[in-house]
Amino acid sequence: MRRDLRDLRELPGAHRGGLVLVACSGGADSLALAAATAVEAPAAGLRAGLVTVDHGLHPASATVAATVLEQGRGLGLDPVRATRVDVGRTGGPEAAARTARYAALRAAAEELGALAVLLGHTLDDQAETVLLGLARGSGTRSLAGMPAVRGPFRRPLLGVERAVVRAACAAEGLEPWADPANADRALARARVRHDVLPLLEDRLGPGVARALARTARAARDDADALDEIAAASDPFTGGAAAVADLLPARPALRRRWLRAAALGAGCPAGALTAAHVDALEALLLDWRGQGPVHLPGGASGVRTCGRLVLSPGAPPRGRTPQTS
């Protein structure tokens, strides 16, 4: 598993004592990552630290966070830090916790001057993400799963199976924490983990998780290429584009333009679905003088005077039916 961390040597600031942080919940995946980073980061000329996020969602959360800090110190990581967050409700419990966690990790990285934050997502997590994206019907980007690198975040274990990291914890004498949320079938990811993936492995044979991870890599390559083409040819300026420029475009490009414009109008990425993009596209392909499309985050899209306009905040009052 340590060889999966060799890319740390390519970080700007490697060999000069730069800091990398491990985001550690105390679970087996992130705890194994912390142990491996404690060895591999110094070999790459880096310092290794740890940050744990206390979501405050269960009575023992503060105790768990304290235990994680103690484990981090025992591994020789420095600095080690716990940060408490308030979890909102937007997008459901899983999305709200994720939003709060990533904001806290990003803030910790900026405060400590870290070069990167390492996340312990494994190949099995990637397979679950692909299945969840498939269920949402959100297109190629959703099937692409989690990226190995995005901004300050790196996921070096996406090619490592969960069983391997659990074995690594056992070999190192580490006692991971079992988050009860991971077994809560009220949560979609827990149902995929404990019910859907095992059923697929049973009915289709072993290797389903690895095949789904390969699908994610292929989908990401395709999505990245199309995103680059779409960005270079995007007709939207200031949140508006001429209908005449949008209609002739290939659907794969047009839908990317619409999604990018919606995000630019303030739609939260995690709340913007394919159904919202469908509704915007209907203003082009199924135009009957309909009013504005309401989008997450209070944004809206409306067709007026031969243009498609996406706006933040409250939707425009009334409507202006057009024939163009």
TrEMBL record:
GO terms for molecular function: ATP binding; tRNA(Ile)-lysidine synthase activity. Pfam families: ATP_bind_3 (PF01171), TilS (PF09179). It is found in: Cytoplasm. It catalyses: cytidine(34) in tRNA(Ile2) + L-lysine + ATP = lysidine(34) in tRNA(Ile2) + AMP + diphosphate + H(+). It is an enzyme of class 6 (ligase). It comes from the Bacteria. Residues 20-194 form the tRNA(Ile)-lysidine/2-thiocytidine synthase N-terminal domain. The keyword Iron does not apply. Its main location: cytoplasm. ATP binds at S25, G26, G27, A28, D29, S30. Coiled coil: none annotated. Residues 243-302 form the tRNA(Ile)-lysidine synthase substrate-binding domain. One of its GO terms (biological process) is tRNA modification. Its EC number is 6.3.4.19. Keywords: ATP-binding, Cytoplasm, Ligase, Nucleotide-binding, tRNA processing. GO terms for cellular component: cytoplasm. NCBIfam families: lysidine_TilS_N. The N-terminal region contains the highly conserved SGGXDS motif, predicted to be a P-loop motif involved in ATP binding. Belongs to the tRNA(Ile)-lysidine synthase family. Ligates lysine onto the cytidine present at position 34 of the AUA codon-specific tRNA(Ile) that contains the anticodon CAU, in an ATP-dependent manner. Cytidine is converted to lysidine, thus changing the amino acid specificity of the tRNA from methionine to isoleucine. This is tRNA(Ile)-lysidine synthase. The gene is tilS.
